[in-house]
Design goal:
By secondary structure, the chain is an alpha+beta fold. Helix content is about 15%, strand content about 30%. A hairpin with an 8-residue loop joins strand 6 and strand 7. The chain starts with a helix and ends with a strand.
Amino acid sequence: MPQHLRNIALTIEFFAVLARCAHLNYTGEAVTTRFWDCCKPSCGWNGKAQFSRPVESCTADDKPTDIAAGTGCNGGSAFQCSNQQPWAINDTLSYGYAGVYITPDLTHGGIEDAWCCACYQLNFTSEPLIGKSMIVQASNTAYDVTNANRFSLAVSHCNSDIMTTKLINLGPRW
């Protein structure tokens, strides 16, 4: 499939996701990192939060699987789908998925149920990404840093780099 058709299809799919996201409005600063652990996304389980459908999981051969399937990281058959990585719309905007941790003071005490499947606009404020934005869906959790807001971007075959990010109009207010 040509790249521009893939971008259009993924954009339409992501807007469908945005329409299902929780209605939140957080603003503040956060740290961003990158990850790809292949495990079933934490927000892929029923009952994790108030949403109509959890984040999709896939089999080892990248086919959508049953929501009840256990994570491949503990002997189950569900993994993160390969299409849950970033894609560019243009030079300043991209879409993607992230593991998220938002401090309870912003979520009125909520933890995963406050951010699972919600969508956020990240406006980067440090080099080399100043002036670029990314809209992400919270598909996973990022509990290894709990003293700051954090978005760990799902990027396959990556290591972690920390960048300061300013978050504006967080939540699906489109």
